[in-house]
Each structure stands twice: as C-alpha cells, then as structure tokens.
Amino acid sequence: MTRRVYQGLFLISLVVCTMLFAKEVKGAAVNLFPHIDKVAHFGIFFILAFIMDKAFKIPFFVQVILLSLYGAAIEWMQNMLPYRQASIGDFIADASGAASYFVLHYIWQKRWQKKNG
Q: Whole-structure pTM over 0.90, yes or no?
C-alpha cells in the first residue's frame, strides 16, 4: 500500500477510535476478564502506531509523543462524559502500546539487517 492509503487509513482509524472511546460501554465484554480495557487500549495504540509509522516519515519518538498526546486527549474527553471516566492506567496502556510497536519494529529491523547484511 502507498503512503497516501496509510494516511487515509490512519485518519479513518483516529475517527473510529475516538468514537469508540467516547461510546458508553455496556455488556458482558467488559467483564470478560479483569483489565480488558487496558488490553484494548494497548492493542489499539499498537495498531495506531503501526499505521502511523507506515503513513508518515517522522521520527519514532515524535510518533510516540503524538500518540501519547492523543491518548491523553482521549482520557480528558472521557473524563468530560457523564458515563465514562478517565484512567491513568488507560493512558499508560496507550503510551505502552505505541512505544511497544516501535521497540519491536526496531528489534525486527536490526535482526533483518543482520540476517540480510
């Protein structure tokens, strides 16, 4: 896929994620296992980091900062909603998910270069 396609996918992902994070959560999925919301935050931000990395040519640490700021904005937004609440644990899961992608990507690149170099 081209960078333009990833940029469009990233924009769509941000809109969808923001809507999902603003949505009222009900049902059995919440009680599937303890801290499922932290796992969801981590996974979503891992995927966002992957898409962002493919979409933009900016340093990884800038991407982690931008995604962390987005995570903070999501928590702030949730704090403003009467049926949601902010969580520092969710923010940590957000930042950890984004940072984990770049750590794994770095390790993968080093191993790939070593193998093919």
A: no
